[in-house]
Write a structure and sequence with these properties.
The chain has about 280 residues and is an alpha/beta fold. It folds into 2 domains: about 90 residues, Elongation Factor Tu (Ef-tu), domain 3; about 120 residues, 3-Layer(aba) Sandwich (Rossmann fold), CATH 3.40.50. It contains 6 helices and 17 strands. The protein has a 7-stranded mixed sheet, with helices on both faces. A hairpin with a 5-residue loop joins β15 and β16. About 45% of the residues are buried. Bound molecules: flavin-adenine dinucleotide (FAD) and FE2/S2 (inorganic) cluster. The site of flavin-adenine dinucleotide has 22 residues, from β4, β6 and α2.
């Protein structure tokens, strides 16, 4: 872990898709230390906020020292971040937690729902750089909220929208059989055969993905998820990010995650903290 003590400097602010903001910051030590899927605790100076806010790095470039964050505005902290612009300083703590396990050579299927896509530009870039075949399944309410497929060079991109304005009309999870159908089937339990799946999105989407995967015979051990459990400290002291393990006990999302294999979580005891 690298604790980034000097503030980052904002280089660019843009709108990569409707309703979202992308901040590009300069912090060479943090950019060099980042593993795809890790997150930072960003200090926010909005009135009446105490805690830092956790954000996955969307991507990082160690050569230029740049890191990108993609986020939407849901409250005071993200509202404050959304009006940072070139020249502002940003206090980052991190990179924190565990990123995705990108080792191996299996084809990869990325499943991203809504702002869950924010963690994937760097992950897909790293998978493609390792020579892995990558299919990205992107889901959003409407076409304007899809991150452009050009952000995933070297990968095949399939889209789903709730209103049918781009790609398949319906849930991104419904694209799984099409994507999986291109590969030999998984071989029983464990991690043999079939592609590996990387997912991020609202908890109900992840639960639907796991249910669909069970029906399609994909072992949970072949699925890695990036969790967005609400966090307090981000460094393992407040226990606010606990998530149930099968057989009892808990993982801490900030230390054991946010990227974990789906078979390490008791999904029947995992609630959606944000979407009712
Ligand atoms: C490891 C990790 C990585 C994350 N990466 C990203 C990212 O890359 N991009 C991104 O946009 N968000 C990301 N999030 C979520 C982000 O941390 C929260 O959206 C943020 O903390 C909200 O802060 P706020 O002060 O704006 O809202 P708050 O004032 O804390 O909350 C305002 C309202 O929004 C709701 N809310 C808070 N978080 C979410 C959420 N994630 N989804 C829906 N509703 C929410 C709250 O329940 C509340 O009703 C990540 C979370 C974690 C744990
Ligand atoms: S956020 Fe405090 S222990 Fe994980």
């Amino acid at each position: 872990m690298s604790l980034a003590l000097k503030p980052a400097v904002v280089l660019e602010r843009s709108t990569p898709m409707s309703g979202a903001v992308e901040l590009v910051v300069h912090h060479p030590p943090a950019a060099a230390a980042l593993r795809p899927g890790q997150f930072f605790q960003l200090a926010v100076a909005a009135p009446q906020t105490i805690l830092r806010r956790p954000y996955s790095a969307a991507w990082a470039d160690p050569d230029s020292g740049r890191i990108g964050f993609i986020f939407n505005v849901v409250g005071a902290g993200s509202g404050w971040l959304a009006v940072r612009h070139e020249g502002h300083e940003l206090d980052l703590l991190g990179p924190l937690g565990r990123g995705f396990d990108l080792d191996g050579s299996k084809p990869a299927i990325i499943v991203a729902g809504g702002l869950g896509v924010a963690v994937f530009p760097g992950v897909v870039g790293a998978l493609v750089a390792r020579g892995r075949q990558v299919t990205v399944l992107l889901g959003a309410r409407t076409s304007a909220q899809l991150l452009p497929s050009g952000r995933f060079p070297g990968a095949e991109v399939m889209t789903a929208t709730d209103d049918g304005t781009a790609g398949y009309q319906g849930s991104v999870v419904d694209l799984m059989p099409v994507a999986l159908g291109r590969f030999p089937p998984p071989q029983g339990e464990g991690r043999g055969g079939g592609p590996e799946i990387f997912a991020c999105g609202p908890t109900p989407m992840l639960q639907a993905l796991l249910e669909k995967s069970r029906r399609l015979g994909v072992p949970l051990g072949l699925i890695q998820v990036s969790l967005e459990t609400p966090m307090g400290c981000g460094v393992g002291t407040c226990l606010g990010c606990a998530i149930a393990r099968p057989g009892g006990g808990y993982l801490l999302t900030c230390l054991d995650g946010p990227c974990v294999r789906a078979d390490r979580i008791d999904w029947s005891r995992t609630a959606d903290a944000f979407h009712g």
